[in-house]
Amino acid sequence: MTMAGNLRKVTGLGRVGGLRGVARLARRRARVDLSHHARSPLGSSVVNCVTYQEGVRAPVCEDLVETVERVRKSGQGFVWLGLHEPTNAEFAGIAELFDLHPLAVEDAVEAHQRPKVERYGETLFAVFKTVCYVEHEELTATSEVVNTGEIMVFVGQDFVVTVRHGRHGSLGPLREELESDPGQLTKGPSAVLHAIADHVVDDYLNVTDAVQADIDQVEADVFAENGARADPGRIYQLKRELLELKRAVVPLKRPLLDLADRPVRVVDPEIQAYFRDVSDHLLRATEQIAAFDELLNSILQAHLAQVTVAQNEDMRKITAWAAVIAVPTMVCGVYGMNFDHMPELHWRFGYPLVIGVITVACLVLYRGFRRNGWL
Q1: Do the bridges between strand 159-165 and strand 78-84 make them parallel or antiparallel, or are there none, so unpaired?
Q2: Secondary structure in 3-state letters for 144-202
């Protein structure tokens, strides 16, 4: 049995004869507005379903299958279907309807994928890591700075399917922004792919700017007067969060260059120039992250050096006081010996003389250590 046959068997859609069978089943049930996810027959994961004709949002059809058939018959426009964390069962019918590759479907449902762009026949599959900055009053050793999610995009000749994972990265504002520029939407599904890539990379730049403020604060604390007492855990936490941001940003460099330079059937040639601009913005974010990593390394080394210097100063002070205390300890130790014939034992002024000698010796040592910066 072929891979497509296995997929049809799993989804249960192969038994009704492909797309036409799905359409017949769809016509038997009540029409439901797909633009409202709570009433969607495809499950609560469906966020929105919109059709665009000549760059303008067309009236919403009550059934997804009928909508897709109408677009394909007209040969114009495309369908944009948005989902949020769908299950295998919810995504099975959609995968069959748009003929999505099983491997790409598995990646879209399971998530936790590396940013990439892959081609499966006439369909382009892209994975983007979304990031957002987590606001906090004060940076601590356990503060979460960067939160990540994912957006998977299936792009075909007449459809775009977006699958979002995570609590942030909503595409609603992006959809409204695109609808305000019909000229861009006339370029087809690749315009949506570019808009999503541009939106994700812009978020990278916003997050790097916010992270820079945290790094500046840590740097100021380390080089403050009591910088040696600063918590090094904050530096390590920033490095961990920066590593998470790096894993989201750096792997996207190669896929964006491919979209910008290599001809792809589902990507409009005019859109490729826009991908070059997105690639430039990504390069800026990548360079900022690399610079932050080096700066944090320098801050950490400087902090460790400050701690070492502070420890050396403490040891010098301890040594200096030990030397001062050694004088009376030595004198008292000598006169504490039980000998009968010791000088000045029976002299009236012997005790004041010994105390005076001890005091003068301690003062001389103290002034000497103070002059050399040990005390």
Answers
A1: parallel
A2: CCEEEEEEEEEECCCEEEEEEECCCCCCHHHHHHHHCCHHHHCCCHHHHHHHHHHHHHH
Q: What is the rounded CA–CA span in Å between residue 164 and residue 309?
A: 51
- Is 137 strand, coil or helix? coil
Task: Order the strands of the 116-120 sheet from edge to edge.
Answer: 56-57, 46-53, 78-84, 159-165, 146-155, 123-133, 116-120
CA dihedral for 243, 247, 248, 254, sign (positive or negative): positive
Residue 18 has pLDDT above 70, yes or no: no
The C-alpha atoms of residue 104 and residue 120 are separated, in whole angstroms, by: 8
pLDDT tens sequence across 42-66: 445 677 888 888 888 887 666 778 8
- Nearest CA among 136, 308, 278 for reference residue 202: 278
248 phi/psi in degrees, rounded to 5: -85, -35
Residue length, the chain? 375
DSSP state, residue 31: P
d(CA 334, CA 14): 105
Distance CA 303, CA 325 (A): 33
User: What backbone torsions phi and psi does residue 165 show, to the nearest 5 degrees?
Assistant: -125, 135
